[in-house]
Amino acid sequence: MKAFQYGRPKNLAEATKLRGTYKAGGIDLLTRMKRGTLAPKSLIEIGTLQEISFAPYLKNGDLWIGAALPLAGLLEAKQKIPSGILQAVAGTATPQIRNTATLVGNLLQEKRCVYLCDPEISCLARGGDHCPAREGHHADLAIFEPAACLATQSSNLAPILCALDAKFVEIKGKNPLIPLRAYYQAWRKGGSRPSTPLIHSVFLPKESLRGGSAHHEIRVKQSFDWAIATAAAHILLEGDTIQKVALWLGSVSDIPYRARVVEQALQGSSSPNFKASAKLLSQKASLHSPSQEWKRRMAILCAEKALQKAYANAKENR
Ligand SMILES: Cc1cc2nc3c(=O)[nH]c(=O)nc-3n(C[C@H](O)[C@H](O)[C@H](O)COP(=O)(O)OP(=O)(O)OC[C@H]3O[C@@H](n4cnc5c(N)ncnc54)[C@H](O)[C@@H]3O)c2cc1C
Ligand code: SF4
User: Fold this and answer.
1) Cα(first)–Cα(last) distance of the chain, in Å?
2) Domains by residue range for the chain, with CATH
3) In this predicted model, what pLDDT tens digit does every residue of 235-288 receive, in sequence order?
4) Which atom of ligand 1 is nearest to the CA of 217?
Protein backbone atom coordinates (compact mmCIF):
# COMPACT_ATOMS: atom_id res chain seq x y z
CA MET A 1 0.00 0.00 0.00
CA LYS A 2 1.31 3.47 -0.87
CA ALA A 3 1.63 6.13 1.85
CA PHE A 4 -1.32 8.50 2.18
CA GLN A 5 -2.49 11.35 4.38
CA TYR A 6 -5.29 10.57 6.81
CA GLY A 7 -7.75 13.25 7.92
CA ARG A 8 -10.07 12.59 10.84
CA PRO A 9 -12.60 15.45 10.97
CA LYS A 10 -14.45 15.94 14.28
CA ASN A 11 -17.72 16.80 12.60
CA LEU A 12 -19.47 17.23 9.27
CA ALA A 13 -18.55 20.90 8.93
CA GLU A 14 -14.85 20.01 9.24
CA ALA A 15 -15.22 17.07 6.84
CA THR A 16 -16.65 19.23 4.05
CA LYS A 17 -13.63 21.56 4.23
CA LEU A 18 -11.13 18.74 3.60
CA ARG A 19 -10.13 17.48 0.15
CA GLY A 20 -9.51 13.80 -0.53
CA THR A 21 -11.23 10.42 -0.85
CA TYR A 22 -13.93 9.64 1.70
CA LYS A 23 -13.44 6.48 3.74
CA ALA A 24 -16.61 5.09 5.33
CA GLY A 25 -16.34 1.44 6.45
CA GLY A 26 -13.27 1.06 4.22
CA ILE A 27 -14.17 -2.51 3.13
CA ASP A 28 -14.11 -1.65 -0.58
CA LEU A 29 -11.63 1.22 -0.47
CA LEU A 30 -8.90 -0.34 1.72
CA THR A 31 -9.08 -3.67 -0.14
CA ARG A 32 -8.36 -1.87 -3.41
CA MET A 33 -5.57 0.17 -1.80
CA LYS A 34 -3.94 -3.00 -0.37
CA ARG A 35 -4.14 -4.69 -3.75
CA GLY A 36 -2.49 -1.68 -5.36
CA THR A 37 -5.36 -0.96 -7.74
CA LEU A 38 -6.11 2.38 -6.05
CA ALA A 39 -3.72 4.89 -4.48
CA PRO A 40 -5.44 8.01 -3.12
CA LYS A 41 -3.07 10.68 -1.75
CA SER A 42 -5.42 11.56 1.05
CA LEU A 43 -8.24 9.79 2.94
CA ILE A 44 -10.96 11.55 4.91
CA GLU A 45 -12.53 9.42 7.65
CA ILE A 46 -16.33 9.79 7.54
CA GLY A 47 -17.35 6.44 9.05
CA THR A 48 -17.16 7.90 12.57
CA LEU A 49 -19.30 10.99 11.89
CA GLN A 50 -22.48 10.71 14.00
CA GLU A 51 -24.29 13.34 11.89
CA ILE A 52 -24.41 11.00 8.88
CA SER A 53 -24.66 7.66 10.73
CA PHE A 54 -28.20 8.08 12.03
CA ALA A 55 -30.75 5.25 12.16
CA PRO A 56 -33.77 5.43 9.79
CA TYR A 57 -36.49 7.91 10.75
CA LEU A 58 -39.73 9.14 9.20
CA LYS A 59 -40.45 12.80 8.44
CA ASN A 60 -43.75 13.76 6.76
CA GLY A 61 -44.11 10.10 5.79
CA ASP A 62 -40.76 9.96 3.91
CA LEU A 63 -37.89 7.78 5.17
CA TRP A 64 -34.36 9.14 5.79
CA ILE A 65 -31.34 6.91 6.48
CA GLY A 66 -27.83 8.09 7.41
CA ALA A 67 -25.28 7.52 4.63
CA ALA A 68 -22.69 6.08 7.03
CA LEU A 69 -25.09 3.84 8.96
CA PRO A 70 -23.51 0.36 9.08
CA LEU A 71 -25.65 -2.19 7.21
CA ALA A 72 -26.31 -4.05 10.49
CA GLY A 73 -28.01 -0.86 11.75
CA LEU A 74 -30.73 -1.33 9.15
CA LEU A 75 -31.53 -4.77 10.51
CA GLU A 76 -31.75 -3.33 14.03
CA ALA A 77 -33.87 -0.31 13.06
CA LYS A 78 -36.96 0.34 15.16
CA GLN A 79 -38.57 2.13 12.22
CA LYS A 80 -40.41 -0.16 9.79
CA ILE A 81 -38.07 -0.75 6.85
CA PRO A 82 -39.38 -2.18 3.52
CA SER A 83 -38.94 -5.98 3.49
CA GLY A 84 -36.89 -5.86 0.29
CA ILE A 85 -34.21 -3.72 1.96
CA LEU A 86 -33.99 -6.02 4.99
CA GLN A 87 -33.66 -9.09 2.75
CA ALA A 88 -30.94 -7.41 0.66
CA VAL A 89 -28.96 -6.44 3.78
CA ALA A 90 -29.35 -9.89 5.39
CA GLY A 91 -27.88 -11.44 2.23
CA THR A 92 -24.85 -9.14 2.10
CA ALA A 93 -21.47 -10.73 2.98
CA THR A 94 -20.98 -11.72 6.64
CA PRO A 95 -22.14 -10.30 10.02
CA GLN A 96 -18.64 -8.87 10.60
CA ILE A 97 -18.70 -7.03 7.27
CA ARG A 98 -22.26 -5.80 7.84
CA ASN A 99 -21.13 -4.28 11.17
CA THR A 100 -18.53 -2.15 9.34
CA ALA A 101 -19.78 -1.63 5.78
CA THR A 102 -22.01 1.42 5.39
CA LEU A 103 -25.14 2.01 3.35
CA VAL A 104 -23.66 4.49 0.85
CA GLY A 105 -20.29 2.69 0.76
CA ASN A 106 -22.20 -0.39 -0.38
CA LEU A 107 -23.96 1.55 -3.14
CA LEU A 108 -20.69 3.10 -4.36
CA GLN A 109 -18.55 -0.04 -4.27
CA GLU A 110 -16.45 -0.74 -7.39
CA LYS A 111 -17.77 -3.00 -10.13
CA ARG A 112 -16.67 -6.63 -10.07
CA CYS A 113 -14.39 -8.54 -12.44
CA VAL A 114 -11.50 -10.82 -11.47
CA TYR A 115 -9.11 -8.94 -13.76
CA LEU A 116 -9.79 -5.69 -11.90
CA CYS A 117 -8.22 -7.19 -8.76
CA ASP A 118 -4.74 -7.39 -10.30
CA PRO A 119 -2.89 -4.09 -10.83
CA GLU A 120 -0.52 -5.79 -13.30
CA ILE A 121 -3.30 -6.58 -15.77
CA SER A 122 -4.04 -3.89 -18.31
CA CYS A 123 -7.65 -3.63 -19.48
CA LEU A 124 -10.20 -1.13 -20.81
CA ALA A 125 -11.32 -0.20 -17.30
CA ARG A 126 -7.77 0.95 -16.56
CA GLY A 127 -7.24 2.87 -19.77
CA GLY A 128 -5.82 -0.13 -21.67
CA ASP A 129 -6.86 -1.06 -25.21
CA HIS A 130 -8.47 -4.46 -24.74
CA CYS A 131 -10.58 -6.57 -22.38
CA PRO A 132 -8.92 -9.86 -21.30
CA ALA A 133 -12.26 -11.11 -19.93
CA ARG A 134 -13.62 -11.41 -23.49
CA GLU A 135 -11.30 -14.35 -24.26
CA GLY A 136 -10.81 -15.36 -20.64
CA HIS A 137 -13.06 -15.64 -17.57
CA HIS A 138 -16.42 -13.99 -18.23
CA ALA A 139 -19.14 -16.50 -17.25
CA ASP A 140 -20.18 -14.40 -14.24
CA LEU A 141 -19.96 -11.02 -15.99
CA ALA A 142 -22.61 -8.80 -17.67
CA ILE A 143 -25.46 -10.40 -19.63
CA PHE A 144 -27.85 -7.44 -19.98
CA GLU A 145 -26.95 -4.32 -22.00
CA PRO A 146 -23.26 -5.32 -21.94
CA ALA A 147 -20.85 -2.44 -22.45
CA ALA A 148 -17.28 -2.78 -23.81
CA CYS A 149 -16.28 -3.58 -20.21
CA LEU A 150 -18.27 -6.57 -18.90
CA ALA A 151 -17.71 -5.91 -15.16
CA THR A 152 -20.91 -5.94 -13.07
CA GLN A 153 -22.32 -3.67 -10.38
CA SER A 154 -22.90 -6.18 -7.58
CA SER A 155 -24.17 -4.09 -4.68
CA ASN A 156 -27.03 -5.95 -2.97
CA LEU A 157 -28.67 -2.68 -1.95
CA ALA A 158 -28.57 -0.99 -5.37
CA PRO A 159 -31.42 -2.90 -7.12
CA ILE A 160 -33.89 -2.65 -4.23
CA LEU A 161 -33.15 1.05 -3.66
CA CYS A 162 -33.56 1.72 -7.40
CA ALA A 163 -36.87 -0.20 -7.33
CA LEU A 164 -37.98 1.97 -4.40
CA ASP A 165 -36.88 5.15 -6.25
CA ALA A 166 -34.41 6.17 -3.53
CA LYS A 167 -32.39 9.36 -3.75
CA PHE A 168 -28.94 10.39 -2.51
CA VAL A 169 -28.93 13.51 -0.39
CA GLU A 170 -25.68 15.33 -1.16
CA ILE A 171 -24.03 17.87 1.05
CA LYS A 172 -23.23 21.07 -0.81
CA GLY A 173 -24.61 19.60 -4.06
CA LYS A 174 -26.18 22.02 -6.54
CA ASN A 175 -29.22 19.78 -6.61
CA PRO A 176 -29.13 18.01 -3.23
CA LEU A 177 -31.53 15.16 -4.15
CA ILE A 178 -29.95 12.83 -6.72
CA PRO A 179 -32.14 9.89 -7.89
CA LEU A 180 -30.11 6.72 -7.53
CA ARG A 181 -31.32 5.57 -10.96
CA ALA A 182 -29.89 8.74 -12.57
CA TYR A 183 -26.64 8.37 -10.62
CA TYR A 184 -26.02 4.88 -12.04
CA GLN A 185 -26.91 6.08 -15.56
CA ALA A 186 -24.24 8.77 -15.19
CA TRP A 187 -21.80 6.05 -14.05
CA ARG A 188 -22.54 4.07 -17.23
CA LYS A 189 -22.22 7.13 -19.47
CA GLY A 190 -18.90 8.25 -17.97
CA GLY A 191 -17.46 4.71 -17.75
CA SER A 192 -16.29 5.27 -14.18
CA ARG A 193 -17.93 6.25 -10.91
CA PRO A 194 -19.03 9.89 -11.03
CA SER A 195 -17.31 11.96 -8.35
CA THR A 196 -19.76 13.17 -5.71
CA PRO A 197 -19.66 15.59 -2.86
CA LEU A 198 -20.05 13.96 0.54
CA ILE A 199 -23.39 12.09 0.67
CA HIS A 200 -25.33 12.79 3.82
CA SER A 201 -28.22 10.32 3.62
CA VAL A 202 -30.54 8.23 1.53
CA PHE A 203 -34.12 9.38 1.04
CA LEU A 204 -37.13 7.18 0.26
CA PRO A 205 -40.36 8.94 -0.75
CA LYS A 206 -43.51 7.93 1.15
CA GLU A 207 -45.01 6.26 -1.97
CA SER A 208 -42.14 3.75 -1.85
CA LEU A 209 -43.15 2.69 1.65
CA ARG A 210 -46.57 1.58 0.43
CA GLY A 211 -47.24 -1.85 -1.12
CA GLY A 212 -44.80 -4.73 -0.89
CA SER A 213 -41.17 -5.31 -1.78
CA ALA A 214 -38.69 -8.18 -1.89
CA HIS A 215 -35.12 -9.11 -2.78
CA HIS A 216 -34.00 -12.53 -4.00
CA GLU A 217 -30.47 -13.67 -4.74
CA ILE A 218 -28.59 -16.75 -5.87
CA ARG A 219 -25.02 -17.42 -4.75
CA VAL A 220 -22.42 -20.14 -5.11
CA LYS A 221 -21.63 -19.85 -1.41
CA GLN A 222 -23.87 -18.69 1.45
CA SER A 223 -21.56 -15.78 2.32
CA PHE A 224 -17.98 -14.57 1.76
CA ASP A 225 -18.81 -13.88 -1.84
CA TRP A 226 -21.06 -11.74 -4.03
CA ALA A 227 -24.24 -13.13 -5.61
CA ILE A 228 -24.36 -14.56 -9.14
CA ALA A 229 -27.58 -12.66 -9.69
CA THR A 230 -30.05 -10.68 -7.59
CA ALA A 231 -33.49 -9.24 -8.25
CA ALA A 232 -35.57 -6.71 -6.33
CA ALA A 233 -39.24 -5.91 -6.82
CA HIS A 234 -41.70 -3.34 -5.53
CA ILE A 235 -45.44 -3.87 -6.13
CA LEU A 236 -48.44 -1.64 -5.43
CA LEU A 237 -51.85 -3.30 -5.47
CA GLU A 238 -55.35 -1.95 -5.97
CA GLY A 239 -57.52 -4.80 -4.78
CA ASP A 240 -55.88 -7.81 -6.44
CA THR A 241 -54.71 -5.79 -9.46
CA ILE A 242 -51.09 -4.74 -9.89
CA GLN A 243 -51.27 -0.97 -10.05
CA LYS A 244 -47.51 -0.42 -10.23
CA VAL A 245 -44.50 -2.76 -10.42
CA ALA A 246 -40.76 -2.07 -10.44
CA LEU A 247 -38.25 -4.88 -11.09
CA TRP A 248 -34.48 -4.31 -10.97
CA LEU A 249 -31.68 -6.89 -11.26
CA GLY A 250 -28.16 -6.81 -9.81
CA SER A 251 -24.83 -8.48 -10.73
CA VAL A 252 -25.99 -8.83 -14.35
CA SER A 253 -24.97 -5.51 -15.92
CA ASP A 254 -22.57 -2.60 -15.40
CA ILE A 255 -25.32 -0.84 -13.42
CA PRO A 256 -28.56 -2.13 -11.84
CA TYR A 257 -30.72 -3.42 -14.71
CA ARG A 258 -34.37 -2.37 -15.01
CA ALA A 259 -36.51 -5.23 -16.38
CA ARG A 260 -39.00 -3.05 -18.24
CA VAL A 261 -40.25 -5.93 -20.41
CA VAL A 262 -41.40 -7.77 -17.28
CA GLU A 263 -42.86 -4.64 -15.67
CA GLN A 264 -44.95 -3.95 -18.80
CA ALA A 265 -46.26 -7.53 -18.89
CA LEU A 266 -47.44 -7.35 -15.27
CA GLN A 267 -48.81 -3.81 -15.13
CA GLY A 268 -52.62 -3.90 -14.63
CA SER A 269 -52.72 -7.68 -14.18
CA SER A 270 -55.13 -9.17 -11.64
CA SER A 271 -53.96 -12.79 -12.06
CA PRO A 272 -50.22 -12.33 -12.60
CA ASN A 273 -48.13 -15.15 -14.03
CA PHE A 274 -44.71 -14.34 -12.56
CA LYS A 275 -42.93 -17.33 -14.10
CA ALA A 276 -44.02 -16.52 -17.66
CA SER A 277 -43.37 -12.78 -17.17
CA ALA A 278 -39.86 -13.36 -15.78
CA LYS A 279 -39.07 -15.59 -18.78
CA LEU A 280 -39.50 -12.55 -21.04
CA LEU A 281 -36.08 -11.47 -19.77
CA SER A 282 -34.61 -14.19 -21.95
CA GLN A 283 -35.09 -12.15 -25.12
CA LYS A 284 -33.26 -9.20 -23.53
CA ALA A 285 -30.16 -11.17 -22.49
CA SER A 286 -27.09 -10.68 -24.63
CA LEU A 287 -24.62 -13.49 -23.91
CA HIS A 288 -20.96 -13.09 -24.74
CA SER A 289 -20.57 -16.88 -24.99
CA PRO A 290 -22.59 -20.05 -24.15
CA SER A 291 -20.79 -20.20 -20.78
CA GLN A 292 -23.08 -17.39 -19.61
CA GLU A 293 -26.25 -19.43 -20.21
CA TRP A 294 -26.38 -20.56 -16.55
CA LYS A 295 -26.27 -16.93 -15.42
CA ARG A 296 -29.21 -16.05 -17.69
CA ARG A 297 -31.25 -18.81 -16.03
CA MET A 298 -30.28 -17.68 -12.52
CA ALA A 299 -31.31 -14.08 -13.31
CA ILE A 300 -34.73 -15.21 -14.57
CA LEU A 301 -35.26 -17.36 -11.48
CA CYS A 302 -34.30 -14.45 -9.19
CA ALA A 303 -36.79 -12.20 -11.00
CA GLU A 304 -39.61 -14.72 -10.62
CA LYS A 305 -38.93 -15.28 -6.90
CA ALA A 306 -38.56 -11.56 -6.10
CA LEU A 307 -41.88 -10.82 -7.82
CA GLN A 308 -43.68 -13.64 -5.99
CA LYS A 309 -42.34 -12.46 -2.63
CA ALA A 310 -43.11 -8.78 -3.29
CA TYR A 311 -46.68 -9.68 -4.33
CA ALA A 312 -47.21 -11.71 -1.14
CA ASN A 313 -45.76 -8.84 0.91
CA ALA A 314 -48.04 -6.32 -0.84
CA LYS A 315 -51.05 -8.50 0.03
CA GLU A 316 -49.93 -8.72 3.69
CA ASN A 317 -49.51 -4.93 3.89
CA ARG A 318 -52.95 -4.12 2.41
C1 LIG B 1 -15.84 -11.08 1.49
C2 LIG B 1 -16.75 -9.99 1.01
C3 LIG B 1 -18.02 -10.33 0.58
C4 LIG B 1 -18.89 -9.33 0.13
N5 LIG B 1 -20.13 -9.67 -0.30
C6 LIG B 1 -20.99 -8.70 -0.70
C7 LIG B 1 -22.30 -9.01 -1.10
O8 LIG B 1 -22.72 -10.15 -1.11
N9 LIG B 1 -23.12 -8.01 -1.50
C10 LIG B 1 -22.72 -6.70 -1.48
O11 LIG B 1 -23.50 -5.81 -1.82
N12 LIG B 1 -21.47 -6.38 -1.11
C13 LIG B 1 -20.61 -7.33 -0.70
N14 LIG B 1 -19.36 -6.99 -0.30
C15 LIG B 1 -18.93 -5.61 -0.45
C16 LIG B 1 -19.16 -4.76 0.78
O17 LIG B 1 -20.52 -4.82 1.16
C18 LIG B 1 -18.78 -3.34 0.40
O19 LIG B 1 -17.40 -3.30 0.15
C20 LIG B 1 -19.12 -2.37 1.51
O21 LIG B 1 -20.52 -2.30 1.66
C22 LIG B 1 -18.58 -1.00 1.19
O23 LIG B 1 -19.00 -0.12 2.21
P24 LIG B 1 -17.91 0.70 3.04
O25 LIG B 1 -18.65 1.55 4.02
O26 LIG B 1 -16.86 -0.18 3.59
O27 LIG B 1 -17.35 1.63 1.85
P28 LIG B 1 -15.89 2.25 1.63
O29 LIG B 1 -14.96 1.17 1.21
O30 LIG B 1 -15.48 3.08 2.80
O31 LIG B 1 -16.23 3.21 0.42
C32 LIG B 1 -16.62 2.73 -0.84
C33 LIG B 1 -16.68 3.92 -1.81
O34 LIG B 1 -17.77 4.79 -1.47
C35 LIG B 1 -17.31 6.11 -1.24
N36 LIG B 1 -18.16 6.63 -0.14
C37 LIG B 1 -18.57 5.94 0.96
N38 LIG B 1 -19.41 6.69 1.69
C39 LIG B 1 -19.54 7.88 1.05
C40 LIG B 1 -20.30 9.06 1.32
N41 LIG B 1 -21.10 9.17 2.41
N42 LIG B 1 -20.22 10.09 0.45
C43 LIG B 1 -19.45 10.00 -0.67
N44 LIG B 1 -18.70 8.91 -0.98
C45 LIG B 1 -18.76 7.86 -0.12
C46 LIG B 1 -15.85 5.97 -0.87
O47 LIG B 1 -15.11 7.14 -1.18
C48 LIG B 1 -15.42 4.79 -1.75
O49 LIG B 1 -15.12 5.21 -3.03
C50 LIG B 1 -18.47 -7.97 0.15
C51 LIG B 1 -17.20 -7.64 0.61
C52 LIG B 1 -16.34 -8.64 1.03
C53 LIG B 1 -14.97 -8.25 1.51
S1 SF4 C 1 -14.58 -6.79 -18.09
FE2 SF4 C 1 -13.91 -4.70 -17.71
S3 SF4 C 1 -12.76 -4.83 -15.79
FE4 SF4 C 1 -12.92 -6.90 -16.62
S5 SF4 C 1 -11.07 -7.19 -17.86
FE6 SF4 C 1 -12.69 -6.45 -19.24
S7 SF4 C 1 -12.42 -4.23 -19.30
FE8 SF4 C 1 -11.30 -4.99 -17.49
Assistant:
1) 53
2) 1-48 (3.30.43.10), 212-316 (3.30.390.50)
3) 999 999 999 999 999 999 999 999 999 999 999 999 999 999 999 999 999 999
4) 8
